[in-house]
Amino acid sequence: MKRIGVISDTHGLLRTEAVAALRGADLIIHAGDIGKEEILEELRQIAPVIAVRGNCDRGYWAKAYADTADVRIEAIPIFILHDLKQLDMKPEERGYKIVVSGHSHKPKEEKKDGVLYLNPGSAGPRRFNLPISVALLELYEETIKVEFLEII
What is the CATH number of the domain that holds 88? Predict the structure, then answer.
């Protein structure tokens, strides 16, 4: 079993509560709007990190990150991007089982056409009355379990 921490929209703020929630993860996915490289450096102290660039990630450091990424964990293919509206393919046709995104700041889990769409919400500065949250994915063979953690 693999435990994956999923975080997004930190916008330069990595809360101690988010760090605590992600401890014990085997891998961390950051779905963009990181804000600054130091966020990823701190997350790498917990576990390896896969990150994509968000629409607010600019500057020299951000050029090191692609707009999308894919990874296979426990035989489960995962596609990662920041803004789900930018998805330009049908994940189910390419064999993906999970699509991770951010951007909306709204935590959401939705299954469509055999694909789990996961947005962990925002872990950075509060926006409107939306929760501050991260998500945890537990993957074992083809079993997928999602847990949202409201951190503040």
Answer: 3.60.21.10
